């Protein structure tokens, strides 16, 4: 199945390069390009792409585009493609509903792989950036007396530990000898219990409580 993508970036040469990199294998079709947050919001409403791939620093602000697109449910998934490694930008993008935070240094092959994972329900953030987000979350957490992790069952805890190590649903299923759809079901329950928007937030909560998961 060809994945439909909206690419929003205010640098035409870079944007065109991303479009070419995505479409060259035939797995993706870029249905629209935008150069500002307002344009991205409008085009997402018109095209309803599988993924809205947004730059953080475009006119109008990438974060405002994330917020509006997620609120309107005008794209199935929202991902950031940016040069910013600022911890607050990463944390805010994830809190607003982005499921991937990708740095512009990635290769075309890696970008395609990450985006295909996003459509399978896999969130993405590099380990270095995840550590920064964890620091922000730790500073902003004013209620540390009771951990939501205490409400997890043993099976849910086992699954979350593997997810926190960066494993995909398929890898978790293989490790625990269960079906992939069962892992997805458990992750829905886990995210609900942790009040996490996506896998990244769930994994960060686990890291905060358990430290580095081995």
UniProtKB/TrEMBL annotation:
Positions of the HTH luxR-type domain: 145-210
GO biological process annotation, one example: regulation of DNA-templated transcription
Keyword vocabulary terms for this entry: DNA-binding, Phosphoprotein
Keyword Isomerase found: no
SUPFAM superfamilies assigned: C-terminal effector domain of the bipartite response regulators, CheY-like
Domain Response regulatory: 4-119
One Gene Ontology molecular-function label: DNA binding
Entry-linked PROSITE patterns: HTH_LUXR_2 (PS50043), RESPONSE_REGULATORY (PS50110)
Modified residues (4-aspartylphosphate): 55
Annotated coiled-coil segments of the chain: none
Name of the protein: Transcriptional regulatory protein LiaR
Organism: Boseongicola aestuarii
Upper lineage: Bacteria, Pseudomonadati, Pseudomonadota, Alphaproteobacteria, Rhodobacterales
Gene (name only): liaR
